[in-house]
Design brief:
CATH class of the domain at 122-364 and 398-494: Mainly Alpha
Number of strands: 12
CATH architecture of the domain at 122-364 and 398-494: Orthogonal Bundle
Number of helices: 21
CATH superfamily of the domain at 122-364 and 398-494: Cytochrome P450
Structural class: alpha+beta
Keywords: Heme, Iron, Metal-binding, Monooxygenase, Oxidoreductase
Family: Belongs to the cytochrome P450 family.
Cofactor: heme
Binding site for heme: 434
Protein name: Cytochrome P450 4C1
Distance between the termini: 88 Å
Strand order of the largest sheet: 1-2-8-5-3
Length: 495
């Protein structure tokens, strides 16, 4: 009986495998035309990617050198096609045939549900509801809050002991959180300072990203019993409860406030828009609010910290940015969106930071219909997972001289003209691009202006061989460490 049962199981497995191959014969045919590493039966290249999360992108670099700028690899039955060519990246990301997130984003769902970041059938409608909160007019109306919080941050930084280094991110994230709470979340200053478990969220946000990225990149964590035995499920449950508690408090406060009055259209935050739309369940409102909360306050804090760290280590650029600021903005008063547009040197440092610390290390899309690239010579089959390794593209020596070096001059107009414009895609492209690019740019640049008004930044350590942490986004593994001292004329104001 045991022998018969074993034989039936083996036969069923073989038949199932053959049926899968017959059903996906078109995909297999097209995949066979692409270069890529040798595969094992059933596993594909899964064993090749048994790596630490940060090493996955290094492996993609190795494969790019071996197989070229378009290659395939298999993770079990899932076909992944990596595209590194900037022109092809634009064509694919702006195509209506590639308008769904890839399977990797499923691992975001326990934390944030289906929606704007994770995809699913409702991402378009959810995005459409909140888009007005991110347009230029709304961001201009948020400017007074950006200025107020940035000035408070600047005062905190320039009161540091000038002899001691510190991780500026820990200060910046508190003030980007306050800015996001009082704009996108729609809260008052008082409510923003008294949210349930918000400090806890600030401490563990990067750990949440780390857990998600670990599950994305370690196939054995996809096995529920393994995930549970390693304590990952318990960790995930703690994070889910934390999200529910914090977002429940935010949404609850806004529901009570809306019973009294609603803000004007130009100043309305995303939580109010979701509540007033009537199209989302309570859980959906909380999960989408969490998505937009963390992708705003945490991402903005990391990029602002990167800009400030680079300025501290590049004194010539700090002088250029400061001099330009004094000419355009002056030593006091609110910073306007029009003034920010004229700060060209700051913009170059900002873009170099976005290049160096990619907001998304890689993105994955599902190919819903066959699509061709390379003048029709390569066809990506339907059902393929398209992988765009933005971190690798931003460090491709074909487009970036000394790609591991920090060089804001890359973005001088004469240097930009020499480079394929699609080699720099910090906010992605197409209908699923970053919703908050205008918002984040205004917030980050306002922070930098105020900090430089108050503080002279100085280096702590070196920019050589920066150790990177890759977990969804790219960040500085050892912190954004600098020193700071008050600028002349500010000492008396702080006493």
């Amino acid at each position: 009986m045991l022998w018969l049962t074993t034989k039936l199981v083996i036969t069923a497995g073989i038949l199932g495998w053959q049926y899968w191959r017959w059903r996906h014969r078109r995909m297999l045919e097209l995949a066979a035309r692409l270069p890529g590493p040798p595969t094992l039966p059933i596993l594909g290249n899964a064993l090749t990617f048994m790596l630490n999360p940060g090493e996955v992108l290094n492996k993609i670099d190795v494969f790019t050198e071996q197989y070229g700028e378009v290659f395939r690899f298999w993770l079990g039955p899932e076909l992944n096609i990596v595209v590194n060519n900037p022109t092809d990246i634009r064509a694919l990301l702006t195509s209506n045939k590639v308008n769904q997130k890839g399977p990797l984003y499923e691992y975001l769902v326990p934390m944030i549900g289906y929606g704007i970041l994770s995809g699913g059938p409702i991402w378009r409608s959810h995005r459409k509801i909140v888009t007005p909160s991110y347009n230029k007019k709304s961001v201009e109306n948020f400017s007074p809050i950006f200025n107020r919080e940035a000035e408070q941050l600047a005062r905190v930084i320039c009161q540091k002991d000038p002899k001691k280094s510190f991780n500026v991110y820990k200060d910046i994230v508190r003030f980007t959180t306050q800015s996001v709470n009082q704009t996108l979340m729609g809260l008052s200053k008082e409510d923003s300072q008294n949210l349930y478990r918000v400090d806890e969220m600030l401490r563990v946000t990067q750990d949440i990203y780390g857990l998600i990225f670990e599950k994305m990149t370690k196939w054995w964590l996809h096995i529920p019993i393994v995930y549970w035995l390693l304590g990952k499920k318990k960790q995930q449950d703690y994070y889910v409860k934390l999200v529910e508690d914090l977002m429940g408090d935010i949404v609850g406060r806004r529901r009570k406030a809306l019973e009294v009055s609603a803000p004007s259209e130009e100043c309305m935050g995303i939580v109010d828009r979701y509540i007033l739309s009537g199209d989302l369940t309570e859980e959906e409102i909380q999960k989408e609010s969490m998505t937009l909360f963390t992708t705003s306050q945490e991402a903005a804090a990391k990029i602002a910290s990167g800009v400030i760290m680079f300025l501290a280590h590049l004194p010539d650029w700090q002088d250029k940015v400061y001099k330009e600021m004094m000419e355009v903005v002056g030593p006091d008063g609110p910073v306007t969106s029009e003034q920010l547009k004229r700060l060209e040197h700051l913009d170059m440092v900002y873009k170099e930071t976005l290049r160096y610390f990619s907001i998304a290390a890689l993105i994955q899309r599902t190919v819903e219909e066959e699509i061709t690239i390379k003048d029709g010579s390569i066809t990506l089959p339907a059902g393929t997972s398209l992988v765009i390794p933005i971190h690798n593209v931003h460090r491709d020596p074909r487009y970036w001289e000394d790609p591991h070096k920090v060089m804001p001059e890359r973005f001088l107009p004469e240097n930009v003209k020499k480079r394929d414009p699609n080699a720099f895609v910090p906010f992605s492209l197409g209908p699923m691009d970053c919703l908050g690019r205008v918002y984040a740019t205004a917030l980050i640049k306002t922070i930098v202006v105020w900090v430089l008004r108050y503080a002279q930044l100085e280096p702590a350590g070196t920019l050589d061989n920066i150790k990177l942490n890759i977990a969804i986004s790219v960040s500085c593994a050892n912190g954004y460490n600098i020193k700071a001292r008050p600028r002349n004329g500010r000492i008396n104001e702080l006493s």
